[in-house]
């Protein structure tokens, strides 16, 4: 299959590597020619498309820009898409992108949204990895009335990267990722603001261990990408942040109730341990292979 990837960052570049390994012919376009040439050198693409028009000459066109850039990119490629072309994307939010596709893309092309649930806190073609999606989920998000063959084609391409596919509608996807992906980033940001950004942090560095490093890892993620995620999934993220704030408040009250002179048989002490043990067990069940 001839696949064109428009946007050769971490996700686009990694997908290109995986698809080439699966036997597909991959064409790439990037806003900066140096990025496209680096993608070619790294084996992410077979050839460089020098124009967006040339990039549209493929069976499948994959849009892989930052989320808020997707609307303008769709408008740029729309006049050049041949009838029957399958268009997909890899954006982290789906409802807004699907609405733009419905508004902008011509009726003769077939759009099917997608979101590979993989990434790193490092961005760019230099960090692309053909194994990035192996054993990860790739969410297929067909719009209402989507072409069955187009859905099948995007599912096949996702599977060709080593990913496992699941299918959701756009709103269900955005609600789910707000909880399991976007909230963890916001929690890491809040922790970094609370601890790393405080003026006294330099005096704390000597005792800062892997716990702080691990808990704030996501705060090192691409700032532009997460800005766009917040802008296009605002309401679902707000609901998750409010829920998280309620849990923090409840935890605060539990700790406040602990005695100032604790004894091992204290009821609140046992309650605190039981709560920690309950959540440990829940997390361990999630992480245990089924």
Note down, in words, how this protein is organized.
The structure is a single chain. The protein is of the alpha/beta class and 290 residues long. The protein folds into two domains: 167 residues, NAD(P)-binding Rossmann-like Domain (Rossmann fold), CATH 3.40.50.720; 85 residues, 6-phosphogluconate dehydrogenase C-terminal like domain (6-phosphogluconate dehydrogenase C-terminal fold), CATH 1.10.3660. The chain is built from twelve helices and nine strands. The strands form two sheets. A six-stranded parallel beta sheet has the order 3-2-1-4-5-6, with helices on both faces. It has a three-stranded mixed beta sheet with strand order 7-8-9, with helices on one face. Helix 2 links the parallel strand 2 and strand 3. Helix 4 runs parallel beside helix 5. The longest helix has 27 residues. The radius of gyration is 22 Å and the shape is elongated. It starts with a strand and ends with a helix. The model has no long low-confidence stretch (mean pLDDT 95).
Question: Tags for this entry?
Answer:
single chain; 290 residues; alpha/beta; Rossmann fold; 6-phosphogluconate dehydrogenase C-terminal fold; three-stranded mixed sheet; 12 helices; 51% helix
CATH architecture of the largest domain: 3-Layer(aba) Sandwich
Q: Spatial order of the strands in the main sheet?
A: 3-2-1-4-5-6
Order of helices and strands: EHEHEHEHEHEEEHEHHHHHH
User: Which CATH top level class of the largest domain fits?
Assistant: Alpha Beta
Radius of gyration: 22 Å
Total number of helices = 12
Distance between the termini: 34 Å
Name of the CATH homologous superfamily of the largest domain: NAD(P)-binding Rossmann-like Domain
What name does the CATH topology of the largest domain carry? Answer: Rossmann fold
């Amino acid at each position: 299959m001839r696949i064109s990837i428009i946007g050769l960052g971490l996700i686009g570049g990694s997908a290109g590597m995986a698809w080439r390994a699966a036997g597909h012919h991959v064409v790439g376009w990037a806003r900066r020619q140096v990025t496209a040439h680096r993608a070619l050198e790294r084996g992410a693409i077979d050839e460089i498309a020098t124009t967006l028009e040339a990039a549209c000459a493929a069976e499948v066109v994959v849009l892989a820009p930052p989320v808020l850039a997707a609307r303008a990119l769709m408008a740029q490629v729309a006049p050049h898409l041949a009838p029957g072309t399958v268009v997909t994307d890899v954006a982290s939010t789906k409802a807004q992108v699907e609405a733009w596709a419905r508004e902008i893309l011509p009726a003769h092309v077939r759009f099917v949204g997608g979101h590979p649930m993989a990434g790193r806190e490092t961005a760019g073609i230099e960090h692309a990895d053909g194994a990035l999606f192996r054993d990860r989920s790739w969410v297929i998000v067909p719009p209402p009335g989507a072409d069955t063959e187009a859905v099948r084609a995007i599912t096949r391409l996702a599977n060709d990267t080593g990913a496992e596919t699941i299918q959701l509608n756009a709103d269900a996807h955005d609600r789910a990722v707000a909880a399991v992906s976007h909230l963890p980033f916001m929690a890491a940001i809040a922790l970094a603001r609370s601890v790393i950004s405080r003026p006294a942090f330099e005096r704390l560095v000597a005792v800062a261990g892997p716990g702080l490093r691990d808990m704030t890892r996501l705060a090192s993620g691409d700032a532009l990408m997460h800005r766009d995620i917040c802008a296009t999934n605002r309401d679902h993220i707000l609901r998750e942040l409010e829920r998280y704030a309620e849990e923090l408040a409840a935890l605060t009250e539990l700790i406040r109730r602990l005695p100032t002179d604790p004894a091992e048989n204290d009821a609140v002490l046992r309650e605190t341990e039981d709560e920690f043990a309950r959540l440990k067990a829940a997390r361990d069940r999630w992480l245990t292979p089924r």
